[in-house]
Amino acid sequence: MQKQPLLGRTLHELQDVVKSLGMPGFAAKQIAAWLYDKKVTTIDEMTNLSLKHRELLKENYEVGACPPVEAMRSVDGTVKYLYRVGENHFVEAVYIPEEDRATLCVSSQVGCKMNCKFCMTGKQGFTANLTAGQIINQINSLPERDKLTNVVMMGMGEPLDNVDEVLKALDIMTAPYGYAWSPKRVTLSTVGVRKGLKRFIEESDCHLAISLHSPIPAQRAALMPAERGFSITEMVDLLHNYDFSKQRRLSFEYILFKGVNDALPHAKELLKLLRGLDCRVNLIRFHAIPNVDLEGTDMETMVRFRDYLTSHGLFTTIRASRGEDIFAACGMLSTAKQEANNKN
Predict the structure, then answer these.
(1) How far apart, in whole angstroms, are the C-alpha atoms of residue 238 and residue 250?
(2) Which fold has domain 70-343?
(3) What would the pLDDT profile of 51-78 be if each residue is shown by its tens digit?
(4) Contact at 8 Å (CB) between 135 and 165?
(5) Which of helix, strand or coil describes residue 210?
(6) Sequence-distant (≥ 6) Cβ neighbours of residue 316 within 8 angstroms
(7) Are strands 61-62 and 109-111 parallel, antiparallel or unpaired?
(8) Of 337, 203, 30, the residue nearest 43 (C-alpha)
């Protein structure tokens, strides 16, 4: 019988485990501390559990921590890690060190259903949702895990298309029994999934980033088919119902494509769309991907676009591009690995 992983279980789920095995209730908190504070890789290391209880646990469970199977390092210090999930599938996590912070970009699915034109993961199609354990393992088994200051759910997949497991993972990151991080250290990025977005806003205090990329619905739909299911105007209407003026941050991600969405009319429409929202816009350089007829905008145009928005009261930044030499935008490495495996 295949053993079940403990990693990725919330305190409530660990309480169910110990209860089913006839262990005392307080053992759930002890197990959580070993998993998320001490980050053990075997049940034998949980030394404040009795030998009898450790043996009981081992009959049906394992920690479930799995180190990355491959790494690609950039000249700028960015590292892309490949994790095996399930039989023959892989996801990527990207570690981005900076002077005053270190961020991990975490995946939530194998592949993605959203099929955004500019995204390599979308070209894979959808294979599977990750479990909370597979999401947390990308952090837990990261070689640089003790240096992490921030996590962004911006890797492979659409987090809110896997909302149950993602919310469990976010709970583990921020709850006292887990990593006990401030929700300000975690940002979730989404193209917008109606029910999932509402649940995330109401059940989590983590930062929210919306993938926008065009303020014009028809053009956004051409770039991002998800627009047809939940339009950006409906999304903004929903966001107006919540308060983002305090510690929680709302941002919009905007990749600038040359001659597509980088002109003054787009900036004006952006101001109109986001008027009255307490938010910021992050402008992003496009990392070219194979067989996609989109080019990145030059820096001069990006600066002009940013300055126009900022001068009209919309706080806008240009996000530094990292790891371009290792294709740090997610999907490239896992696609290559999957294709190599399929040939073997």
Answers:
(1) 13
(2) TIM Barrel (3.20.20)
(3) 999 999 999 999 999 999 999 999 999 9
(4) yes
(5) strand
(6) 280, 281, 282, 283, 305, 306, 309, 310
(7) unpaired
(8) 30
Where are the chain's structural domains? 4-62, 70-343
Q: What is the CA radius of gyration of the chain?
A: 21
**In terms of Cα–Cα distance, which of 128, 87, 124, 134 is closest to 110?**
128
Paired tokens of 73: 């390092």
Q: What is the mean pLDDT of residues 220-233?
A: 96
> What is residue 159's DSSP assignment?
G
- To the query of whether residue 330 is one of the catalytic residues in this protein, the response is yes
Residue 134: both structure tokens together: 């597979």
**246 DSSP assignment:** S
Phi, psi of 276 (to 5 degrees): 90, -10
E strand or H helix that includes residue 306: helix 299-311
Token pair 């966001």 is found at: 239
Confirm whether 66 is a catalytic residue: no
- Give the per-residue pLDDT at 329: 58
- The angle subtended at Cα 150 by Cα 328 and Cα 136, nearest 5°, is 80
DSSP 52-112: HHHHHHHHHEE------SEEEE-TTS-EEEEEEETTTEEEEEEEEE-SS-EEEE---EEE-
Residue 328 is predicted with a pLDDT of 57
Q: Looking at the domain covering 4-62, what would its CATH class be?
A: mainly alpha
The pair of three-digit structure tokens given for residue 250, joined into one six-digit string: 């709302």
CB 289 within 8 A of CB 256: no
- Give the helix ranges, DSSP H, for 209-275: 217-223, 232-239, 264-274
Assess whether pLDDT exceeds 60 at residue 331.
no
List 92, 158, 165, 227, catalytic entry: 92
Give me 335's structure tokens. 């696609």
Catalytic residue among 66, 105, 119, 330: 330
Positive/negative CA dihedral, 162, 293, 232, 207: positive
List of residues 6+ apart from 258 with CB closer than 8 A: 294, 295, 296, 297, 298, 301
Residue 48, SS3 per DSSP: coil
Strand partners, 216: none
